[in-house]
Amino acid sequence: MATKLLLITFAICRLIVTVGLTVDPTELLRLVVDGQLSVDPSDVDTASKDFGLMTRAEPLAVLHPGSAQDVARLVRAAYSSAHGFTVSARGHGHSINGQAQTNNGVVIEMNGGGSSGRVMSRVRSGSGRVSEKGMYVDAWGGELWIDVLRSTLEYGLAPKSWTDYLYLSVGGTLSNAGISGQAFNHGPQISSVDELDVVTGRGELLTCSEEKNSELFHAVLGGLGQFGIITRARIALEPAPQRVRWIRVLYSNFSAFTKDQEFLISLHGQPSTHKFDYVEGFVIVDGGLINNWRSSFFSPSNPVKITSINSQGGVLYCLEITKNYHESIADTIDQEIEGLLKKLDFVPTSVFTTDLPYVDFLDRVHKAELKLRSKSLWDVPHPWLNLFVPKSRISDFDKGVFKGILGNKTSGPILIYPMNKDKWDQRSSVVTPDEDIFYLVALLRSALDTGDETHTLEHLTNQNRQILKFCDDAGIKVKQYLPHYTTQEEWMDHFGDKWGQFYQSKMDFDPRCILATGQRIFSPSSSVPISNHGGDKLLSIS
């Protein structure tokens, strides 16, 4: 205990010297008794980097919270301090461009072992965590989706909408949107949230929903961490299927590929027997890629012979679809799938099918992660670029990017699939193209030290810039998903008509701009609030 107090005292003294805290040190000691405020070099080092491995920050300390109140106390201390210090919440550290990092501030490690693990254990074991009657689960903001899934499956239930990778935190994906192949039907993950507990930039711990503190509720969902830190999310559930029929088919014609994708997502209002449960796709510009990473689906003993299929411009497209089912109706699933496949225009000889448990399908990318880790190919820079492209310009994007800028080599998957805009609540902070259907194009590439110049970080980041410039020059009004900009002017352009409300919400809920500064949307204020209520005004916003 004495060692812990010594460490915490050292951390607090460092904060006082560095940022000029005006609160009493003993008060700060009480703020962290549930958890731990750490300046351990290993903790600070972990918090200084992320999955992207392209930026590095210098946080002063790391808070491992023991409760939601710990989070509120730390933020309240930052809000009340004379000079202010920044606070960023970190989930699984899967950001690409330092969005969850902070310089000269404190990172809240929402996920992991130690005290964070203990608080999640208490949340998991608490009464009412999974409500079978209410069909919801209450999840800690730093909890990983894989753990949410495991908890709900004990009751035969599961969330409706997912991300492709389950080792992401609840608060992290909800601060962006959370998308995968179920989004055409259920919307993004933020569409399945009933209620949140949020610590605002004032240090207030508030419960919000459609009915209560609704402005905060809608602002936080997709709000990039700008208005508060999610400490609890109530997520809607549905009966969990037992198995998944996973199908991939190939296209050599882009128009046929997108026509079929758009047809499949138009079925979202149909009974489950008349539609697929998941619709995604990916682009194959490199003949070897289809037998790697996400494409490990294909049996090594029966590799896909890309050269045997006539493709346009050397590019193929793979439609990825699934049908969920219970073993009790297994005898009818083949007929349902056959009826849907007959309506599609893929290469007839290119149907690849597998059948697996529901959990294994949802957790498919983690298995690929383990393979990459075994080859030291996981902890490398990831210059990912995720774009929402309007349906009306997706063909132009194909010609200019897939068949143009990218060439015939890539170092990671290139996903492409459409979504229905009416499944996205426009009251959230997320921005999407102004069309009824838009596509996600996700270039999930890794910078590899292979000796191939096209796999280097410099080459890939230059290509990303070329892609964005091409879209700008061609008038393709894309919106970045998991956006990254360096100036407020760029952010204003990104948010468009939503900027006014976004800015006002920032002034309402984080007026000193201390939260999520790694997003580079607002600069922290060095001013002290001149009142203590909702009408706070600042002497200046730097």
From TrEMBL:
UniProtKB keywords: FAD, Flavoprotein, Oxidoreductase, Signal
Question: Which segment of the chain is annotated as a signal peptide?
Answer: 1-22
User: InterPro entries given for it?
Assistant: Cytok_DH_C_sf, Cytokinin_DH_FAD/cytokin-bd, FAD-bd_PCMH, FAD-bd_PCMH-like_sf, FAD-bd_PCMH_sub1, FAD-bd_PCMH_sub2, FAD-linked_Oxase-like_C, FAD-linked_Oxidoreductases_BP
Tell me the domain of life. Eukaryota
* Cofactor dependence: FAD
- Which Gene Ontology MF annotations are present? cytokinin dehydrogenase activity; FAD binding
Q: Which EC class heads this enzyme's classification?
A: oxidoreductase
Q: Which family does it belong to?
A: Belongs to the oxygen-dependent FAD-linked oxidoreductase family.
Name of the protein this chain belongs to? cytokinin dehydrogenase
Recorded source organism is: Prunus dulcis
